[in-house]
Design goal:
Elements (H helix, E strand, L loop, with lengths): L2 H16 L9 H10 L7 H15 L2 E4 H21 L6 H29 L4 E6 L8 E4 L1 H5 L3 H29 L3 H25 L1 H12 L2
Helix pairs in contact: 1-3, 4-5, 5-7, 5-8, 7-8, 7-9, 8-9
């Protein structure tokens, strides 16, 4: 893609987000693809990052500042661990209830935190936490696209994979905690079911529209 075409796309995309719309149909994602393949297009990175942030504000149901969202996710993770800990303090059904409930809380909070921690480790910055829409209430953490595009594609790929990996491992890791706490058998099977559902979600959805799709996309640039 030449500079004239890129400049035109940026103009169209900027007008779209300034009017409260998204970037679909503007050529924005074709420009992103071209930028990932051609390092000489780095001069457009800051414009792209600005448009990307405005697009998020137009699309997301809720956004909160990075520090606030991170604090809430960390606090939520502490609450989840406390609930798991309660399983060791009681017996019978309540032990299973606390374990399963705590695991559920941790599944919500640790997914985005995994993206954040791995991303920061490889040099990616983040700008906010968000919830996209009511039908997809999982909290997400938004990358600063200028730092994202300037990070090697393999590193970008593993940042995307981090959340998915944590989500898939957590229910199975908690089985050991459940056995140590002596929870009822049904609670152990509940954790197994949570893990199986998470794996099925990866196969049926994430590989087509979420983390693993992004992982494969970024790894494809690593082979260029």
């Amino acid at each position: 893609m030449d500079a004239v075409t890129a400049t035109g796309i940026i103009g169209v995309a900027r007008r779209a987000v300034d009017e409260g719309r998204g970037v679909d149909g503007t050529g924005f994602w074709k420009l992103i693809d071209a930028m990932k393949r051609d390092p000489s297009m780095d001069r457009f990175v800051d414009d792209v990052a600005e448009i990307d942030q405005k697009a998020l504000q137009n699309w997301a149901l809720i956004t909160v500042p990075l520090a606030v969202g991170t604090s809430l996710m960390v606090l939520g993770s502490v609450v989840g661990l406390v609930l798991v800990g309660l399983a060791y303090e009681v017996e019978g059904a309540w032990a299973g209830i606390w374990l399963v409930l705590g695991t559920g809380v941790l599944l919500v909070t640790t997914h985005g935190l995994a993206h954040l921690l791995v991303g920061m480790a490889v040099g990616i910055k983040f700008t906010a936490w968000f919830i996209g829409k009511i039908t997809q209430p999982q909290p997400g953490v938004k990358t600063d696209y200028s730092s994202y595009l300037r990070t090697p594609p393999r590193s970008r790929a593993w940042m995307h994979a981090a959340g998915a990996i944590v989500t898939k491992l957590l229910p199975f890791l908690m089985i050991g905690a459940g056995l140590a706490a002596g929870v009822p058998v049904w609670a152990v099977w509940a954790l197994v079911a949570m893990g199986v559902v998470a794996l099925a979600t990866d196969v049926l959805w994430s590989t087509k529209a979420s983390d693993w799709k992004k992982f494969r996309r970024e790894m494809s640039f690593a082979h260029d």
